[in-house]
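Take one protein record:
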Amino acid sequence: MAARDLCHKTLLLSVCIAIFSSDSARSQTAPTTFQRSLTYFSAIEELDTKFEGLRAAGTKLIAERQDAFNRLVETKKAVAQLAEANAMKSLELAFTQLMTLSKQAELNGLLATPTQNAPVDTGVDVRNTPRVQLQSQVTARKKTEIGRDVLREYGNDLAQAKVRTDFVLHQIKTINVAGKLALERHVSILQELEKIVNEMLLWNSKTLELFDMYWSLADVAGVKSDIELKAGLRQLNRSSNENAGALLLKSITLIRLQEYDEAIAILNQLANVPALQVLVTTIYAEVLARTGDQREALAELRKTARFGLNDPKLRMHRAIAFAACDELKFAESEWEALLKIGGHEVAARRAIAFINAASKSPSERTKSKAMENAQLAVKLDDADWASRLALALATFANGETEQSSKLATEAAELATGSNQSLCDEIAEQLLAGNGTSWKFN
């Protein structure tokens, strides 16, 4: 395995060196092309390693949970004959609560493994319980808050289960020695299950965090170079087909490379994960728009309108999809909503600048808005080529032709691959006094 990994890295290095050697663009930017591609590849590789570790940990916890469940079933009959009715009811409630929590954690954890076998049978079906339905809504509407709010609620349920087991321990005093030993064993297994559930909830949280890390590497805004995307795809082709985060990243990468059929196949697979359905629908809408079916794309976007009001991922993907449909005002509203939520400010400011600079009949307000947001984007990240290009287009919209061309050339110096050629082409057009706009579709 180590030899194979070394061979793969050597192959990637050779490809990057070939890119470096054949790149006829500016010599000072070529090392950046190489470094960015290698960095992107390595970042995905690192997440894949974390995924494998989490998958192994999850498999172990699920097996331990099933073992505890089996032992509880074995002792349940004897305990039922000994414990008082109230004590037995408390045991049943504690057991059901713990098993439900563990199954919910397992189902959420399967967000990372959508193609693996169904969860093991535990005697508790939580697929359609109100909590799971609520969980799906919360995941769709407030994914960024799941670690704080939902897991806190899980903690409250664990506390209630502990109160019930403590009550049973108090009841043990009224039972004979043989019965006491049987009941103590049953409660001990229940407490062991409680510990496993705590670990499963932590595993669930880490799984969701890892999914977010994969998404953060995705070229949602469409600013990575073709060379970076192809380098990332080389690693993603090695990622597990049970890794939803890697699959989502791969689908977005394929969309940016205009490999739409392959992207759709992956999105169809991810649509089987309930917590991802709204996100997948939004991304699918973008694909429809980019393949010429704007009407159907808008219909898909309407399905997502009630969800994700506080979810930056959904807001960003909706903005991109609306822009691909040439519905720039709706796209701008999504970007502005993202600014209010917080985070991703460079992408949002840059996009708002592009949209206002592209106005066919610009008012003083739109010209001012384009310039203000572009300047803020550059101030936040002066090494971002796309923000510098947004400033170039905003400058042109404000009537400064020569300066706009200069800024587009500066953007080319910061860009790599096909993006560098794009900036050079725009610089020439701007200098000639020909207006141009960002590649919305």
